[in-house]
Amino acid sequence: MRQLESKKELVKVAESNLKLSRELSKKYFEAHHSIRKESIEVGELVLLRNSALLKSA
User: Would you list the domain boundaries of the chain?
Assistant: First the structure.
């Protein structure tokens, strides 16, 4: 019985560690892999590239 209780506790600890690790990895990735530094505002003009047209030519 004690082993089952201990296993349940270990699984809970592992779950919380995994969740924390995923959150930290997400924050690190988003901080270091952004394409642009500034955000695009609503109504702002942007340049689009239509890759479908490039493939058909």
Answer: 1-33
